[in-house]
Amino acid sequence: MTGRRNPRPAAAAAAAALAGSLLLTGCGIKTTGVIESGHAAKVAVPDGGGATVYYVSKDGEHLVPTPFGFDGYSISPAVLVRVLLDGPKGRAQEAGLTTQLPRMPEGKTDGFSSTPYSPESGITLRVPFPVAGLSQLARLQLVCTVAVSSVKDVVTPVTLQGTDTTLPSAECRLRS
What we know:
Elements: H1 7-25, E1 51-56, E2 63-68, H2 77-86, H3 90-94, E3 113-114, E4 123-126, H4 136-149, E5 158-161
Parallel strand pairs: 4-5
Antiparallel strand pairs: 1-2, 3-4
Helix pairs in contact: 2-4
């Protein structure tokens, strides 16, 4: 009887060696560093019946919606503005959020008021500090917080009235 060899084990060994070498060499994709792709996507804050306060992001370039309040309770625009002026607390502060609005002296609570919502003119927010010199993000903090939180299911125009001037009515339009 002649010694016949079975080609299957040899072929299997060759295939295993080839597969192993392919695994060691990778798939041909070179590694890269981190690729910057811009800002994060817009965040949809679930409507829990509370308000949304807009703080400035850690990088200082855009606003971040932050839920505030309790289900079923409405909060007046003047109170929301006071929350903005006090700056973020808790997790919002830990995340590096901030405000570009001026700080009010401790205990000063007067000078904040708002008109009732009107479908024709929106809301006028009166604050006890100058508004003409506010940065665009600071203005948007006020406008977006009041516009989104004042009237359920309505993003209303907001007119800012400070101690120096009244700014034209604005809507909460955030850039991506």
